Amino acid sequence: MILNITKTKEIVFRRPNPRLSLHPSPLPHIEQVKVVKLLGLVLTERLRFDDHVSAVLKVGSQRMYLMKLLRAQGLPVTQLNTVFEALILNKIRYAIPAWSGYFFQYISYLRLDSLRHISTL
After folding, report:
1. I want to staple 102 with a disulfide (CB 3.0 to 4.6 A). Which of 24, 34, 48, 49 is the partner?
2. Domain spans of the chain, in order of start
3. What is the pLDDT of residues 81-90, one digit of tens each?
C-alpha cells in the first residue's frame, strides 16, 4: 500500500481536562489537525461533536429552504415528504448513535428553527 502524504492528516485525540498534557511530536511531512471529517462525521481532538451537529443543522436549514422553493413550485405534499425524508431525515439519522448525546443539547434550537421553517412552508 502506498500512502499519499499530500492527503494524509493526523489527529491526536485528547482528554477534555488532562492534568498532564502530552503532545506527541508531529510526523514529518504530515499535517496535524484539530478537526477532521471522517466518513461524513466531523470529529474534534476532544471527541466532541459540536462541529458535526452545527454542520448538520446548517445543511438541514439549507435543505429546508429548498423544500420551501419546491413547495412554491407546486410539488405535491406526498412528493415533498419523499424529498424531506431523502434529503433531511437521512442526513440527521446518519451516524446518530455516535453523536446523539450532543443532539439533545441542540434540541430546543432545532424545535424553534423547525417551527420557523414549517410555518413559512
Report:
1. 49
2. 9-44, 50-120
3. 999 999 998 8
